[in-house]
Design brief:
Layout lengths: L3 E5 L3 H13 L6 E13 L3 E13 L5 E4 L8 E3 L4 E7 L2 E8 L4 E16 L13 H10 L9 E9 L2 E8 L5 E6 L6 H15 L8 E6 L4 H10 L2 E4 L18
Parallel strand pairs: 11-12, 12-13
Antiparallel strand pairs: 1-8, 2-3, 2-8, 3-4, 4-5, 6-7, 7-8, 9-10, 10-11
Length: 255
Amino acid sequence: MGVVEYLYGPGVEETLDFVVRQVVQSPEKRVLMVLGSCQVRYQGRARSFLDWGERILIVKEDGTSIIHQPSGREPVNWQPHGARATYLLQDRLFTVHVVHRKNRERMAVSFKKIEMVFAARMDDRARVQIVGMERDIVDKIMENPELIEPGLRITQREKKTRSGLIDLFGYDRHHVPVVIEVKRSQATISAAQQLRMYVTDLKRGNDKARIRGILCTPRIPEMVCRLLDDYGLEYREFGWQHQLFDDQQTSLEDY
């Protein structure tokens, strides 16, 4: 790890000065972390407001911005890579504006009390080793559709539509058509939009037709869940449970 700079218990003006020097004016990209009491406002596909609470804001080198509460795996709010952050004092608060122009989303995080601010140049060139492909998850659902829900019947794999191939197509216990889109990693906004297009394709010429769409992935962020809800689609957290072994680990056979 490169040079790490931090302050404990700074005031809002001291925090702004630190961020300008260590992040904005730094010749190298750095990760910023702010821990303190903040408010969060979001505007994009919908609007949301999160009142005062102690949280962690992380702004990564690529613009990805994440807000975590003291508990829970998923961020309470976030912006994907490509977002741009600006820092200022606003109404005596240290405020971070994060704007993603392509997605037409904006997030404002205002801190009234800061416990710690941290900036560091991080080096990470490793790649995740993926165990299990999407087709493995599809195979597992084909073998036992009731892993998704009781009474589900799969009748077709890779059903062709205008927008592409549906991973799985079938009917629920009430004989309602079901479209299932499978992803091997965390659900994204594009995955939700892809599922919506498949359902729209099947409804073409009959908008009142009842067709269910289910997105199946190992992890689904809250914002993607909200988008699926807006689209009238469903989701299941489902995937393989694997263990990766270290190929370099010494065993008794090596002696």
